[in-house]
Amino acid sequence: MMLNCHCRDCQRATGSAYAAFAIFPKAAVSLKGEPCWYRVIGSSGKPIERGFCPTCGNPMTVRLDVAPDIIGFHAASLDDPARYEPAMDLFTASAHPWDLMQADTIKKAGGLAS
Predict the structure, then answer these.
(1) pTM above 0.85, yes or no
(2) What is the signed CA dihedral for 105, 85, 21, 10, rounded to 10 degrees?
(3) Are 90 and 5 contacting, i.e. CB atoms less than 8 angstroms apart?
(4) Which of 67, 56, 80 is nearest to 23 (CA)?
């Protein structure tokens, strides 16, 4: 799954309008090395862990306690970011008026469960 998250946590973490994520089952992913993890409490009241490259500090990944079987990777951290094609925009209620979302993506005011 590929999606754009417009929640305030992602806006602050990226310094942008949204975070572009490619989502994978954790069981299907293996990482070489270990990111540096930063943990916050999300609006759900559950932890969100953001992984950063320990060498350069670039944001790479996100883990959510509310969805423990998946892991998200920032689209720009993929080997071929041009293959990123978001199908969904989440937390659109937090999107800025100047954030022009693609017309053909599914829009959800909240998260995946909403």
Answers:
(1) yes
(2) -50
(3) yes
(4) 67
Assess contact for 95 and 105: CB atoms under 8 A: no
Question: What are the residue ranges of helices labelled H in the chain?
Answer: 8-14
Query: What are the tens digits of pLDDT across the range 36-86?
Result: 999 999 877 889 999 999 999 989 999 998 889 999 999 998 889 999 999
Contact 70, 24 (CB under 8 A): yes
100-112 pLDDT, tens digit each: 999 999 999 988 7
pLDDT for res 114? 60
Domains of the chain: 2-107 (3.90.1590.10)
**Dist. CA 21–CA 104, nearest whole Å:** 17
